[in-house]
Design brief:
mainly beta; about 40% strand; 9-stranded antiparallel β-sheet; 7-stranded antiparallel β-sheet
Length: about 375
Amino acid sequence: MTATAHFTGDADPYGGGDPYADYRTADFPFTHFVDLADRRLGAGVIAANDEFFAERENLLKPEPAEFDPEHFGHKGKVMDGWESRRRRGVSAAQPHPSDEDHDWALVRLGVPGVIRGIVVDTAHFRGNYPQAVSIEAACVPGFPSPEELLAPDVTWTTLIPRTAVGGHAANGFAVDAGRCVTHLRVNQHPDGGIARLRVYGEVAPDPAWLAALTTFDLAALENGGQVEDASDRFYSPATNTIQPGRSRTMDDGWETRRRRDKGNDWIRYRLAEQAEIRAVEIDTACLKGNSAGWASLSVRDGRSGDWAEVLPRTRLQPDTNHRFVLPEAVRATHVRIDIFPDGGISRLRLFGSLTEEGAARLAARHQELGG
């Protein structure tokens, strides 16, 4: 584990105006990876020992934490995060908590994966954040209950040792565990509140599941697809295009700034593994006055070589799911969508199946990661 942009200590009390004006954050080197704890992928906070002031489920909300200085409930200030009560010692002679006292929450990742970085966000927790945090990881197949995860036979590996963190800050940690993870145990020492938890990494799909499906979305995040690069991420991330489900709002897709030159925008994807693509969906849901005008699709087998166009430049309609059956199956490891001239799409689906070579490589990697 490597700490990056390390923050410690209290933030100043809220003094009015924009609550994020004095928020401490940084550019972390791992945030281009998928958030494995994204609720859209099926992640959840399945248990916590204490959530007296604020519910554990707030940890995985996709949007930034909000702060309303006038919002109080019958238990006190209402915070947009997970907050436990203040710990106390065992007696008047020992009023302080012991060094071992801490609160914990169990997080089920949306998909198994290899973690590359974690952000413990204490936004708006200025004087009520934990003194330190630690995070452990486990790989447990199936659908274990909290009781099963906390059983003595489960092996937990420390990803972040007990480390001091700062209030009202994005506390980032680069992680290089090199093993597949399904669950996290988030510990705050001795108590306090965390607004959001982001767990960045690479999806490690189950080869047996994909083999049983036969035909599936080869670009989907949950199946191991990735966005490698994009020409423009001005309004929203290109990764949105391979999230589960249809887009429900305009900002849940990919939208570029307005072009004033004669170029065009594009996204490059890496598929789950080498595969044969048979059908394509290009969805512009919720993009009405700003959808792409046209789109084309090209493929490449391997990291080098020329791109071969498989879907010629085709007119797109706003707020519409466009479906195309390819004349014949196309072998590829990478796909590029070009939109003309700018605008956006909400989702791209690439349906097909793995080749024998792709399936073998995927199985070997899964075994290597301990999945």
